[in-house]
Amino acid sequence: MDFAVQKREIHEAGFSVIDNIYTDQEVENILEAISKTDSAKETFRKSDDLFAIRQFLKEVPGTIDLIFNQKLKAIVGVLFGKDYFVVKSIYFDKPETSNWFVSYHQDLTISVDQKTEVAGFGPYTKKHNQFAVQPPLNILEGNFTIRIHLDDTTERNGALKVIPGSHSKGIYRPQTIDWSIENEVSCNVAKGSIMIMKPLLLHSSSRTSNHKRRRVIHLEFSNQILPKELSWSEYLELE
Question: What are the domain boundaries of the chain?
C-alpha cells in the first residue's frame, strides 16, 4: 500500500487512523508481556484513575518485537521515512471507572537526559525523574506519534478528541481556540488499530462513562539530531 490517503490526512488534518495493524492474538501477546512486568519501579504510575509505564520499551523490552511487526514498520517507512527512531514510549491503562481526563493541549515538550542551557531549548520540567524541555518549533513539526490501541476506544472511554488542522498553526494556546471556526472530532479507534498524530495537534480526552477499559501504547518518533549537550532520554532505531 502507498498510504496516500493517510499521508494527506496527516498533512492536512494532523492525524489519521489505520485499522487492523495487530490481530487479536498479537494484542493478547503484548498484554501478556506487560502483565509479567514488575510494577514497583518509579517509572510506573498507579492510581485509581490511571496506570502508566514511562519509558515503556525500556521497562518492558519483551514487547518490542511484538509491537514493531512488519505492518507497523512499513507504515513508518512509507509515511515518514527510514531515518525515524523512537524517542519516547508510554503505556496507559485507563480503568473502567476512571475519572481521569485531559483538557485541550499540544505536546510541546520532548524527553531528554538532563537539564542544560542550550539556545532555543526551554523551559524545562521534571516529572517522575524525567526531564522534558520545549525544543525549537521545527523539531516538533517534524516529529510524530503513534498510539497503539489495545482496546476498542470511543469518546465514552477516553478516545482522543482533536481539532483538525490545528497542528499547522504553530503554538496554539487552548484558551485562544476560536470555536466559531474550529471543529472537534472524536478519534474512535478499534482494538488492534493505530492512530497517528502530529505533536502540535490540539487534543484532549474525556472521563470514562461506559465502564470499558482503555489501554494504549504511546510512541513518539523523530529524525532530529539534538545539540551535543543534549540526548534523547529514549532512543530505539527500527530495523
Answer: 4-237
| C-alpha separations of 212 from 98, 99, 151, 185 in Å | 9, 12, 9, 20
Residue (of 140, 135, 195) closest to 166 by Cα position: 140
Beta bridge partners of 102: 205
Query: 168 and 141 in contact (C-beta within 8 Å)?
Result: no
pLDDT at residue 70, rounded to an integer? 95
Task: Determine how many CB atoms are found less than 10 A away from the CB of residue 44.
Answer: 17
Nearest of 147, 140, 151, 157 to residue 208 by alpha carbon: 157
Question: In this structure, what is the dihedral angle of CA atoms 35, 37, 41, 45, given to the nearest 10 degrees?
Answer: -20
pLDDT at 121 over 70: yes
- Residues 145/107, Cβ–Cβ less than 8 Å: yes
Using the Cα atoms of residue 73, residue 29, residue 147 and residue 183 in order, give the sign of their dihedral. positive
Q: Rounded CA gap, 233 and 239, in Å? A: 20
In this prediction the pTM is 0.95
pLDDT surpasses 90 at 135:
yes
Q: Which three cell numbers stand for residue 172?
A: 496554539
Span 4-237 CATH architecture: Sandwich (2.60)
Say how far apart CA 180 and CA 206 lie, in whole Å.
Answer: 22
